[in-house]
Amino acid sequence: DPGVRWTSIQLLYTMKDPDSLTLLEKTVAEDSDVDVRMKAVKLLNEGGTSRQVPALVKGLADLEPDVRIAALKALGDIGDPAAAPWVAALLKDPENNVKTEALHTLGRFQEKRMKDFQNLTDQLRHQYEAAVKKSQQNSQ
Question: In this structure, are residues 2 and 35 in contact, taking their beta carbons and an 8 Å threshold?
Answer without folding.
Answer: yes
